[in-house]
Amino acid sequence: MIKNFSIKKGLFAIAGLQIFLTLAFLLYLISFNTYQSYNTATNRYYQVGEQLLSTAESMIGDLENATFFPAQLYTQNNDSYLCRTLREGPILKNYRFYSYFNTHAQSSLSSDSVSFIALYDLEQNGVVSSRKEGYRIVFLSDDTPAWYQELSQYKTGSTLLIPANEFSGSGYNQADCRALCVARGVVDLNTIKIVGYCVAGTNTDYLDHRFDQIRQAPNQKYALLKNGQLLYSTMNNPPPSSLIPGSPFPDFQGRKLLLDKGKGYVYNTISHANGYCLILQTPMSDILGNVSSIQFFYTLIIGILLGLIVFLMIRIMKKILSALDRLIDACNRFEPDQGVSVSPEGLPLELSTLFGSFNQMAERIRFLIQEVLLKQQQQQETELQLLRTQINPHYLYNTLEIMHMKAYAHQDYDVASMAELLGQNLQFGLRNTAKEVSLREELHQLNIYLSILSYHYGDRISAKICIDDDLLDCRILKLVLQPLVENAVIHGIYKSDQILNIEILGYRTEAGLFIQVSDDGCGMTEKQLQELMQNIASPSSDSIGLRNVCKRILLNYGSEYHAQIQSKYGTGTTITLHFPWNPFHQKV
């Protein structure tokens, strides 16, 4: 026994010595290869930085050219419509202006580096044109953004470069804090005065996508600066000030190794004389991951050592597997209506603890299954109760028919007509069980509802529907327009002599079908709008109609399609519904 124990000690000592010598030699090879990889990799990073910096400079140049297009219309085409309209007053609800702007702005969006172009009048009303969405009406936030305040101080058409994290409050949520922008004042050449502001922007995804194509390390990040000002960064923290070249800005390339919270990072700095600077941040772990593979001979030695370890592990695993067989057998014998347990007798402490936990889990699962079965039984009873209560709406519809005939017989034609219209409205919701109808049918039902409102409000509600016939066969959810018009009437009319104008606009883009319901009612403040959005998202919301519409669009079509709410106090409210393009004659 003593002899066997001594032999084991000797074998373990020899194996330990071999492992030590192997690891020492491997450490030398890894250190040498790491140093070579570090120099090679960091030199390649300068090429990546130069390419990305050139892309950024070209992109910003395209943005500057894009902001010139209102002036170019006048100087090249002698077309002064945009400037003249901006000079004459606010552009709010000037749909001809919006369409005209969108048509000419699309030519400037032909470059992939320009994501959108926005035009604002001097009263902070604006319109945005993008390649994917067409045009959109926007308003600056109630708290005038800092970039707009700075731009309004300019008396000439000088450009303002807006960092991505400072571009906010534009009214175009897709770009706020996510777009690098160039802005300039629109100069009316007749009066030589600023009549508006043009903003061109690029979503930062454009630079990120370009960087992903040329990056040399998986966790590499970058920061773009101009004259020392940070324009955009993918780093978790701003780049250290010691890496930014001082003014005047030279053509410069530099490399530094710095520590941040115990982790090493290599920073490559590339700057140009025009003030643009790019800083690449590369974790040392990425560089070390590029170390060359070790020669086959040393790999064979490691393989033998690993083989020995595997042999020992197999012997240990056999003991563990025999214990797991008990556990698997217990799982196979598990039944919801009776308990099951595994005896931990004769097992190591760790496995005994595991088996004890299994016994507790099995008992808990049995309890939960019984609880689920009970809930299913309760749900079936609830569904039966719901089926019994469905007779009530049919009773209400039949009662309205009786009221209609009775009123007609007594020559009370207004009451008869109202009962008939209300019956048709109720019938649409009861007898047509399909969740989708054509836009044509939905508009017909909306006209019935507007006819009912006319009995109470008379000529105080003016509704205009501007939708091309080509869009009327598209499928949309049933009863989505009536709740929006109802909200506009209830919350938009605040004076007894007020005339409420409601406009329903429909248009189609590559993204699908859009329907806008706009009113010129009292509108909402920014705080009221935020409270409404939170109220809609709450399960206990009292905004039943609007929450119902938003929730149904989300559940039926997914998060890509949604309802967007824009409102300005004293101006009105616009709700835009987004549906997929799916006409009835198209195969689903």
From TrEMBL:
Domain of life: Bacteria
Compartments reported by the entry: Membrane
Record-level GO cellular component terms: membrane
Keyword tags: Kinase, Membrane, Phosphoprotein, Transferase, Transmembrane, Transmembrane helix
GO molecular function: phosphorelay sensor kinase activity
Domain HAMP: 318-370
Stretches that traverse the bilayer: 12-30, 296-317
UniProt keyword Phosphoprotein, yes or no: yes
Protein's recorded name: Histidine kinase
Highest classification ranks of the organism: Bacteria, Bacillati, Bacillota, Clostridia, Lachnospirales
